[in-house]
User: What shape does this take?
Amino acid sequence: MSAGEGEIATAWHPTATSDRHRLRLQFDWQQDRHQLQLWRDVEAAGEVASELLLISEEGTPNNRWPPSPPLQSLAIEERGEQTVALAVGMAGGAHWSASIETLPEPLALRFDYACRLNEEPAFLGSTFRIAETIPEQAVSAMDFVGGKQELAAGSLRITSDPPIASNSVLVARWQFTLRYVATNA
Assistant: This one.
């Protein structure tokens, strides 16, 4: 799938109030790449309400080093009880790949990115806007494991380690796990 939309979602998990919730990552086609939108779905009394949490910042087709990996081709696979999104893309002289998977633990997604590049990047990582309807302190209800995180001015940046040389090209990889920590749910 190179355009259009797709999504992966964690399994439903009970809340303290006998409702249930899950995380859902939606891939929405914007210009020439997929924008990631992280939602929390809550099911109560047979009705599902969705709360937007994070939106990836994508940049433009002219950005040599976009704020997030430019994922242009997407495939979604079921692997047992887990769902995996595999994606690739390119910008400037760099090529990105991504694997984003649901985890068996409740409300958790693992992100694994790699980038092959020919020069030192101005920025390499993932950038998310915190949804306007979510107070910035609500991001503290999410647990990010791995990567270097920076939270500032309604934005979350997760940066890669410096690239390493491999066969005359540079390679960078960054991984992080996002867990929604239900405080009152």
